[in-house]
Amino acid sequence: MASRPSTESLSNSSSKLSLMENLNGRVGHLTSEQQEALDQLKKDLTELEGGKYYNPEKHSDHHLLRFLRARKFDLPLSKKMWIDCEIWRAEFGADTILETFEFPEYLPALKFYPRFYHKTDKLGRPVYIEQLGLLNLTQLMSVSSEERMQRNHVHEYERLIRYRMKACSEKVGRHLEQSLVILDLKGIALSTFSSVYGIVKSVSSIAQDYYPEMLGKMFVINAPMLFTGVWTLVKPMLDEATVQKINILGSNYLPSLLACIDADSLPRFLGGSCSDCKEGCEHSDIGPWNDGSVEGYPKPEFEKIGVKYGGVDVFRHVKK
Question: Which among 28, 83, 111, 130 would be 20 to 30 A from 200, CA to CA?
Answer without folding.
Answer: 83
